[in-house]
Amino acid sequence: MATKQSQSQSQDDEDDASTDAIELLEQDHQEVKDLFDQYDELADNEGSEADKQAIALQICTMLTVHATIEEELFYPAARDALKEDDLVDEAVVEHASAKDLIAQIEGMEPGDDLYDAKVKVLGELIDHHVEEEEGEMFPKVRNAGLDLQVLGLAMASRKDDLLAEAGENSSV
Q1: Global pTM value
Q2: CA 85 – CA 88 distance, rounded (Å)
C-alpha cells in the first residue's frame, strides 16, 4: 500500500512540475533550442533540403504555438502581477519580429537564397528572447505570487489544442 501511495505521490509531483507555467515555457525553450542545434548541424554539414525543411517547419510550429500561449495567457497574467509593462511590451515586440521571420521561412523552400540565414537569425532572435525571459521576467513573475500551477494547466491545455490544430492543418 505504501508503494501505491508513493507512486501516486510521485505522479502528483510530476504533474505539479509539468503544470508550472514557467517550467512549461522553459521546457519549450529547451526543445526549440535543440531543434535549432539540429538545424545548424544539417546546414553546416550540407544536410538534405527535405531534412532541413522538416526541422525548420517544426521550429516554426513550436514557436507559433509557444508565442500564442504566452500572448493569450502568460503575458496578460505577468502584466497584471508585475504592474510593469516594459518587460512584457518588449517580449511582444520580439514575438512580432519572430512571427515575421516564421512567415518568411514557411513561404520558402530550403534551396532558396537566404533560407539558412533566416533560420539562423530566427534562432539568434529566440536565444535573445529566451535569455531575457528566463533571466528577468520569469524570476519576477515567480516572486509576484502568481498561481503558476493554475496558469500552467490553462497553458498546457491551450498548447495541446493548438498542436492538435497544427497537426490537422499540416496533414491537409
Answers
A1: 0.86
A2: 5
What values do phi and psi take at 142, rounded to 5?
-60, -35
Burial 74-88 (b: 16+ CB within 10 A, else e): bbebbbebbeeeebb
Question: Which residues does 69 contact at the CB level (< 8 Å), separation at least 6?
Answer: 155, 158, 159, 162
Fold classified for 20-170: Four Helix Bundle (Hemerythrin (Met), subunit A) (1.20.120)
Give 55-99 pLDDT, tens digit per residue.
999 999 999 999 999 999 999 999 999 987 899 999 999 999 999
Handedness of CA 160, 166, 171, 172 (dihedral sign): positive
- How far apart CA 137 and CA 91 sit, in angstroms, is 9
